[in-house]
Amino acid sequence: MDTVDAYRHCEQIVRGKARNFSYGLRLLPTPKRRALSAVYAFARRIDDIADGNGPDGQRLTDLAAARAALGTARPDPEDPVLVALHDTALRYPLPLSAFEELIDGCAADVRGETYEHFDDLLSYCRCVAGSIGRLSLGVFGTAGSTGTAGTEDGGDAGDRGDGGGAAGVAHLADALGVALQITNILRDVREDRLAGRTYLPAEDLGRFGCTLNIDSSGRFTDPPDRLAALMRFEADRARDWFDDGMRLLTALDVRSAACTAAMAGIYRCLLGRIAADPAAALASRLSLPPWQKAMVAACALAGAAR
Predict the structure, then answer these.
(1) Residue 240 and residue 217 in contact, taking contact as beta carbons nearer than 8 Å
(2) Whole-angstrom Cα distance, residue 48 to residue 177?
(3) Cα(231)–Cα(186) distance, rounded to whole angstroms?
(4) Which residues, given as ranges, of the chain have pLDDT below 70?
């Protein structure tokens, strides 16, 4: 398959299945937008396998096949996602091993693993979301970095700071991924529970006297005030991770910073809605209207340019 068509296919996947991220990707120059679309398209494939309705054993087998596909020297020419991802890996220093961490996290989902302490949940978040942050860094590069990823924007990086070196930048990308994943978990508490999954740590449920049990009508049986306190506690935790992770912006070129700020900004707004009205978040899956997402993206672009 022609790589241009392969990238176009990946961009369609992002627009259709990862709409929050698509607002940020629009702010990138074409090569980086296409590259991250390939990354997200393959990540979506992994997520879809884990979230599928097939038997657990088949889903684990399919995840193993996705893992094996990463190690092939030549992608299946009929698979546009692998064609685009292979081309991206030739152009950018992608840490493809991060996809294996994502697969590990999704395998945990299939097995229905639960988390006793926050540190246990943190390890999961770093697998499924921090991994995407590290892959994104491979495309973004950092301000002042050399090579294709650092210079293709026409030298607009300037001197935005080094984020504390490569390890420090990776830490910040990881922190931002954790913040995004905690927000996802809070947005999907009811949906996940109906699917038989519980992500919030058992120690936190115990602290607030909650079980997350659901009655025959699909409503939580815990007292609403306890559930609200639990949700706000977790939202405050996510805010702390956002505060740490958003320092990543100073290590990125202008348009990469705008992309990251747009994605994170949309999730921070969503987190604010969850904290403001936990009952609504627990009753249905909250989302921001398109006009608000577009406004966040526009503000991110204007702020990064200053």
Answers:
(1) no
(2) 19
(3) 7
(4) 142-164, 304-306
**Tens-place pLDDT, residues 216-246:** 888 999 999 999 999 999 999 999 999 999 9
What are the structure tokens assigned to 56, written together? Answer: 């657990």
**Which residue, chain included where needed, has tokens 């904290």?**
275
Among 197, 196, 175, which Cα is nearest to 185's?
197
- Say how far apart CA 26 and CA 164 lie, in whole Å: 28
Distance between CA atoms of residues 57 and 98, nearest Å = 23
pLDDT of residue 87: 96
> Which pLDDT value is given to residue 161?
38
The β-bridge partners of 214 are 220
Burial classification of residue 196, based on how many CB atoms lie within 10 Å of its CB (0-12 exposed, 13-18 middle, 19 or more buried): exposed
* Radius of gyration of the chain from its Cα atoms, rounded to whole angstroms: 19
Q: Which class for 96: exposed (0-12), middle (13-18), buried (19 or more C-beta within 10 A)?
A: middle
Three-state DSSP class for residue 184:
helix
DSSP string of 171-234, one letter each residue? HHHHHHHHHHHHHHHHHTHHHHHHTT---S-HHHHHHTT----B-TTS-B-S-HHHHHHHHHHH
Measure the CA–CA gap between 51 and 138, rounded to whole angstroms.
27
The pLDDT score that the predictor gives to residue 165 is 72
